[in-house]
Amino acid sequence: MTIKHKKGQETKKKLLNTALHLFAEKGFDNVSVDEIVATASSSKGAFYTHFKSKHEIFLEKFKEMDNFYESYFSTHDKTLTAYDQLLSFFKALMTYMRDEIGLDMLRVIYINELNPNRTSFFTNPDRTLYKVLTTYFQKGINEGDFRTDVNAEYMTKCMARIIRGLIYDWGLYKDEVDLVQESTTYLRYALDGFVKK
Q: What are the φ/ψ torsions at residue 146 (nearest 5 degrees)?
């Protein structure tokens, strides 16, 4: 990596972290690009070199999440049943959300993704999260552990909705709910619905 490239990456990271902090503090719509660059001691030119818009800041956060999913999936114990792999993955996912992303950032992301004027990244079927879940479910179907009257893509859609709901619920109840503990119970119940009887 050249010095110029390294400096560019450092600037991008500083702008990203500054923007996310301001979004969490003031709300996405109350923060301008001017404020982001002023707080980061940067320039508009630097901002638009790295991001097309404020919304693209969130795409970077989603990429970070998807990198986590991909990394976890590539190092996961493939000898486990699909059911056990999914339970382990769900626990790792929710632990990551709780400990690395955090409730404040998730609130900001959810508020932004509910904007009716843009397509939400939550619904992008090409996300790594959906590919990982579909792979696990397809394995379970192929090995005879999961039912065959619904396909792996539908199972993935159902579980993704449940995961989003659990995270949203965590935001409502704040410290009253432990995201990892609650999700372990609920996701097991939901997953049981796909087990072949």
A: -110, 155
115: amino acid identity, one letter = N
Q: Are 48 and 26 in contact (CB under 8 A)?
A: no
Task: State pTM to two decimals.
Answer: 0.80
* Distance in angstroms (rounded) separating the CA atoms of residues 129 and 118: 20
In whole angstroms, what is the distance from residue 59 CA to residue 52 CA? 11
- Of 99, 110, 85, nearest to 163 by C-alpha is 110
Distance CA 188, CA 186 (A): 5
| 167-194 pLDDT tens trace | 989 988 877 888 999 899 999 999 999 9
Q: What count of other Cβ atoms lies within 10 Å of the Cβ of residue 190?
A: 18
Residue 135, CA distances (Å) to 59, 65, 148, 174, 183 in order:
23, 18, 15, 32, 21
Q: Which residues pair with 195 in a beta bridge?
A: 146
Domains of the chain by range and CATH?
A: 1-51 (1.10.10.60), 58-192 (1.10.357.10)
- Rounded to 5 degrees, what angle do the CA atoms 36, 171, 92 make? 90
